[in-house]
Specification:
The complex is a heterodimer. In chain A, 37% of the residues lie in helices and 18% in strands. Chain A contains 15 helices and eleven strands. In chain A, the strands form two sheets. Chain A has a nine-stranded mixed beta sheet. Chain A has a two-stranded antiparallel ribbon with strand order 5-6. By secondary structure, chain B is mainly beta. Chain B has one domain. Helix content of chain B is 10%, strand content 34%. In chain B, strands 8-7-6-9-10 form a five-stranded antiparallel beta sheet, with no helix packed on it. Chain B is extended. The N and C termini of chain B lie far apart (63 Å). Classes of the chains: A alpha/beta, B mainly beta. Chains A and B meet through β1, α1, α6, β5 and α15 of A and α2, β6, β7 and β8 of B. β5 of chain A pairs antiparallel with β6 of chain B, so a sheet runs across the interface. The complex binds zinc ion.
Chain lengths: 388, 172
Amino acid sequence: MVGKKRVAVIGAGMTKFRRNLKETGKELSYEASKMALDQAGLELSDIKSVVMGTAPDAFDGVHMKGEYLADGAGAWEKPYSRVFVGGGTGVFAVDAGWWHVASGKFDTCLVVGEEKMSSCYPHPAYAFTTIFDQIYSRPLGVTLIWIFALEMHRYMHVHGITKEEIALVSVKNKRNALDHPCAQLGANITVEDVLNSEVLCWPVQRLDISPTSDGAAALVLASEDVAKKLTDDPVWIDGVGWCIDSTYWTNRDLYYPQYVQCAAQMAYKMAGIKNPPKEIDVAEVYDPFDYKELHHMEGLMLARKGQAAKLTAEGVTQRDGDLPINPSGGLLGVGNPIAAAGTMKCCEIFWQLRGEAGKRQVKGDPRTGLAQAWGDLMQYGSVVVMRS
Amino acid sequence: MSEKIKHFPGEELSGRDIREGKIPCIKHRPNVKYLWSAGIAMSRFVEGMKEGKIIGSKCVKCKRIMVPPRAFCEECFRPVDEYAPVKDTGTINTYSVSYVAGDASRIKEPILVAVIDIDGASKGMGILHLLGEISDWKQIKFGMKVKAVWKPSEEREGSITDIKYFKPFEEV
Ligand SMILES: [Zn+2]
């Protein structure tokens, strides 16, 4: 076993995801944390450490956001840290929570993912322009959507994948989200709707993209001895992985996320997984854009290079398929409050493995699940493997 | 969300109510400015721009010629050995057609954007830049050869924008 202690997830919670929520980031963090504690049957006094995941300070305009949010995450007078790896934050926060408990240092850890993007007014795109290199990129007027469009186009070109094949991901995830009570953009749409939606930055169209959102999600982690006292139904964190590539994103071939593969290999090795598509029963794969789900399935080795679109067209990734991907509805359907979205994916896997996902429950009796997030300048991968 | 949970926190606000000041909101616009030193390697690069040259850096250990130039090789983790111009031509690695400006507002005349693998640098060493002198973006192809179009030398100021854009060209 990696680590001194085996680590379980014993509770999860989240708020609604919406374009604008009235609650402050601190209040959203409180709501998700309180729900996760209630589900675990714990009081705040039972929590020995706290990890907060939240993305750029520029969204909230509060330049010590981790500290600002601490009270909402139940961190008052506790060991606390904020982690930040861009879009990869929400899953990486769970990786970080794992090492808090696995090290034997803490019996419990509350992991919270929060994002309030609506504060950046009138649009959070303003904040995103400050993530780029100030010397050789920003003077060109680069925006976030350019780099996704460039990556998507490269991926389509190398494998000969069509817009129609990619649009199926958006159709699936938005439909899945209709069964999620917190979802922002659940909808029944067609491939034609996606292809007829506004062209923003070819090949990216309006319905290829997840929305900007406010929201929070949280998980309670506990060591094996504590977990077994509290529940008959713990979900184990059996694999964690994370990896970063260089910010020189124009110096690598964007068709394949090698850094996601590295993160996945780290997690699979730890979990003893040799054949990911056979051994993973359900996965929440990072989908801020529809093509990213396919791109990441390949990076995670859930599909061979260039084959994820084919699996999607065959229905394999539907909720009732052999390898359900994003049964929650993902970022495309549930919404994309950056760090909260990644943590939401970990919550979904927890609920799926406990058989509590209700209308979203995948078929069979899933025993092994995976959650993954991705971020920074198309360079970061974070992965969690869980088992019931 | 677990089926055991029946209450979902989060009170939605309408964007219109916010814009019309119907709900309590506080507005603030910080006035923060930055002035960056271009650094050891990129100072060479922007000085090269003034002279109409794209400067790369070379690591003799891994033999990579890197653009943009670095002061140190991130793979070998040692200083680079030399700075030298690469060509101002290259190949379109990937491209995009943007109808969106930096603030998410919409623009009529699309901006043509590309990653251009630069000739004379190591394989796959691309830079982000714009494309121009293309009447219909459907003429753009992966693998197309392009060449930098420079501002007149008196207008150059030591910036990546001293290259106005890259235009298609035929190799002779
Ligand atoms: Zn080297």
